[in-house]
Each structure stands twice: as C-alpha cells, then as structure tokens.
TrEMBL record:
<keyword id="KW-0433">Leucine-rich repeat</keyword>
<dbReference type="GO" id="GO:0005886">
    <property type="term" value="C:plasma membrane"/>
</dbReference>
<keyword id="KW-0812">Transmembrane</keyword>
<keyword id="KW-0732">Signal</keyword>
<comment type="similarity">
    <text>Belongs to the polygalacturonase-inhibiting protein family.</text>
</comment>
<keyword id="KW-0677">Repeat</keyword>
<dbReference type="InterPro" id="IPR032675">
    <property type="entry name" value="LRR_dom_sf"/>
</dbReference>
<keyword id="KW-0325">Glycoprotein</keyword>
<comment type="similarity">
    <text>Belongs to the RLP family.</text>
</comment>
<dbReference type="Pfam" id="PF00560">
    <property type="entry name" value="LRR_1"/>
</dbReference>
<keyword id="KW-0675">Receptor</keyword>
<dbReference type="InterPro" id="IPR001611">
    <property type="entry name" value="Leu-rich_rpt"/>
</dbReference>
<dbReference type="InterPro" id="IPR051848">
    <property type="entry name" value="PGIP"/>
</dbReference>
<dbReference type="Pfam" id="PF08263">
    <property type="entry name" value="LRRNT_2"/>
</dbReference>
<feature type="signal peptide">
    <location>
        <begin position="1"/>
        <end position="24"/>
    </location>
</feature>
<dbReference type="Pfam" id="PF13855">
    <property type="entry name" value="LRR_8"/>
</dbReference>
<dbReference type="InterPro" id="IPR013210">
    <property type="entry name" value="LRR_N_plant-typ"/>
</dbReference>
C-alpha cells in the first residue's frame, strides 16, 4: 500500500504535468490565427491540401499542420514547403498564390519555410521585415519577383536565408548585410539580381556559406572577403564580376569550395592561394585570368581544379604532382608552355584536359589512360596517347 507521502508526491507530479501541458497548448493568439488565415485566402491552388487543416473553428497551435506555437500561444514555426519527406516517402507538391503581407504580424515567428512551392508569385512583402525573431527563412524555388525588401535590415537574428531560384531583381540592400552578424548561410542563386556585392558583406562575421551564382552581379569581389574567417563555401559563378581576385582570399583557411567561373575576372591568381589549405573544389574557368600558376599550389588539398578558357601562361608548376588527392585537372584553352612535369605521373586524376595550350615534349606516363583529346592542340607534344616521339 502506498504511503501518504508518496501519494502526495504522485499528485504533485500530476498537477505539474497538467500545468505544463496547459501552458504548452494555450490557444492560438487571435492575431496569429488571422494572419495565417489571410495567407490561406491568398492561395488559389493547393492540390495536395497542405492547408486543409487550417480552419477558423480549430486551434492553430494544436490542429493546424505545419504550425507550431510557443508556451504563450504565439506562432513560432511555419513550415509548409513543397518538397518534404516522411519516414518512408518523399513528397513533391506546389501551391499557387501570393504571400500575404499579414504574415508580418507573426511577431514571434522564428522559423519560416515556404520553399519549393514552385508557384508562389508576386513580390516579397516588406512587412516580413517585422519578423525580428526570425532565425531561419526559406522562400527558395518559387516565382517571386521584385526586389529584396530594404526592411530586411531588421532581421538581425537570421542564421539562414535562402531566396534562391526565383525571379528577384534589383540590388542587395547594403543596409541588410550590415546588420546580419549572426547569418551563417546566404543563398540568393538563380535570380536576376544586379549591382555590386555590397562592401558591408564584411559584417557577416558568422558566414560559412554564400551562394549567389546565376545572377547579374557586377563590380569587383570586395577585398574585405578575407575577413570572413568562417567561410567554407563560396559560389559567385555565372555573374558579371570584374577586377582581380583579391589577395585577401588566401586568408580563408577553412574554405572548402571556391567557384568563380563564368565571370570577367582579370589579373593573376593570387600567390596567397596557398593559404587556402582546406580548399578541395576550385573552379575559375571562363574568365580573363592571366599570368602563371603559383608554385605554392602544390601545397594545397585540391580534389578538383578547373581553369579552362582563360589567358594563363608560363610553365606548369612541378608541385602540382604533389596533389595526390586530385581527381579532376582541366587547364584547356590557355597559353601554358614548356613540358608537362614528370611529377604529373604521381597524380591519380580520373579526368584530365590539357588541350589547346602550347605544351611541348613527351607526355609522362599517367596512372590513368587518357584519350588523345586530352592533349590535342599542343603541337609540340608527343608520346602515348599521341604519336610516338621522334628519336634523335
């Protein structure tokens, strides 16, 4: 038989659990419910009924799918993406409509994901700048147009923001980047954004990933990029960026991926590149780079190096033979001269293209057999897989 003291303890625990449950399930705040219902009213098509449970007669904190509330009944999470998975399936759907400005009234919202809905149209409401508690913000893979609202400068707690794969235009508000010191991931790729990369990018001291490829950004890469010590992923490719690759880029010792291809970059590859000790994937093709490859390149950890279609000259550094982790080396359509160093026989590359340069001499014995096309356009080369070298 249980003692009186144990019975009291049990009763107390029941009361505590009941109180906790009551707090956790407090009714949805009227302001938040109205904002969400207004969002639903702006959706014209919802074929898989992502918003079916959103009814005025039910509690949005308890019964609405994709909505979560804090202990006070304020909505903190809104998650209705078009691509999502369960334990055993992946679902791909869409919604057609616009983003209601009323979502800006969800003042306690921390997580917003309306990505991959494919057919969200119209502009991004400036009222979303009122979501000052927001930490994660995903509107990617839709058909949104217009500028990034200047009001986003108030989103100072953001850690991740993806607006990619839309039709956004205009420049990135410099004031927005100035106040986002907590931002770790920024995805703006595949839009129609233009103008320069704001110098205020230097304030993104927590940034680990920036991907703005496939836009119309112009001007130069800010020299202050070297101060963003946490960067491990930089993709500025397929834009209209000009000028030199800044020397400061060599300060990014944690950088794993650097894609600058399909721009109009000029000047030489900085000698500071050897400071990119963690770099594995480097794509600088389709630019106007000149000069030679720094000999220090052999000190890196590269797996993929593509420098095609530039104006690079000089001899290939012997140190490239030290890149034993390299699986892709492509240097075609440049002006490299001299012999292919015998150290290249140390490489384990699976893809090699040295075509259309000014290389001479005998091709070293690579560990992998490559087609003749890998060396064509070098009139001074001979040996397998090209015709044998002439003996004296």
């Amino acid at each position: 038989m249980a003692s009186k003291s144990s019975t009291k303890i049990t009763s107390l625990l029941v009361l505590i659990c009941f109180a906790t449950f009551s707090l956790a399930t407090e009714a949805c705040h009227p302001t938040d419910k109205a904002a969400l219902l207004d969002f639903k009213s702006q959706i014209n098509q919802d074929p898989t009924k992502l918003l079916q449970t959103w009814n005025a007669s039910t509690d949005c904190c308890v019964q609405w799918e994709g909505v979560a509330c804090g202990s006070t009944g304020r909505v903190v999470n809104l998650t209705r993406p078009g691509l999502f998975s369960t334990d055993d399936s992946i679902f791909d759907t869409f919604m057609n409509g616009t983003i209601s400005p009323s979502l800006g009234n969800l003042e306690f919202l921390r997580f917003l994901d309306l990505s991959n809905l494919k057919q969200l149209v119209g502009t991004i409401p400036s009222t979303l700048g009122k979501l000052t508690h927001l930490t994660d913000f995903f509107l990617d893979t839709n058909q949104l147009i217009g500028p990034i609202p200047a009001s986003f400068e108030k989103l100072t707690k953001l850690r991740r923001m993806y607006l990619s794969d839309n039709r956004l235009s205009g420049s990135v508000p410099a004031s927005m980047l100035q106040h986002m010191s907590s931002l770790s991931e920024l995805g703006l790729f595949n839009n129609q954004l233009s103008g320069g990369i704001p110098s205020t990018i230097r304030n993104l001291v927590s940034l680990t990933k920036i991907d703005i490829h496939g836009n119309q950004f112009s001007g130069s890469i800010p020299s202050t990029i070297g101060s963003l010590k946490k960067l491990n992923y930089v993709d500025l490719s397929a834009n209209k960026i000009t000028g030199n690759i800044p020397q400061s880029i060599g300060q990014l010792s944690q950088l794993n991926l650097l894609y600058l291809f399909q721009n109009s970059l000029s000047g030489s590859i900085p000698s500071s590149f050897s400071g990119l000790s963690a770099l594995k994937f480097c794509g600088l093709e389709d630019n106007k780079l000149t000069g030679g490859l720094p000999s220090s390149i052999g000190k890196m950890s590269l797996q993929r190096l593509v420098l095609d279609n530039n104006q690079l000259t000089g001899e290939l550094p012997v140190s490239i033979g030290n890149l034993t982790n390299l699986d892709t080396l492509s240097l075609k359509n440049n002006g490299f001269t001299g012999k292919i160093p015998s150290s290249f026989s140390n490489l384990n590359v699976l893809t090699l293209d040295l075509s259309h340069n000014k290389l001479t001499g005998k091709i070293p014995a690579f560990k992998t057999a490559f087609p003749a096309s890998s060396f064509e356009g070098n009139s001074g080369l001979c040996g397998s897989p090209l015709p044998p070298c002439k003996t004296a």
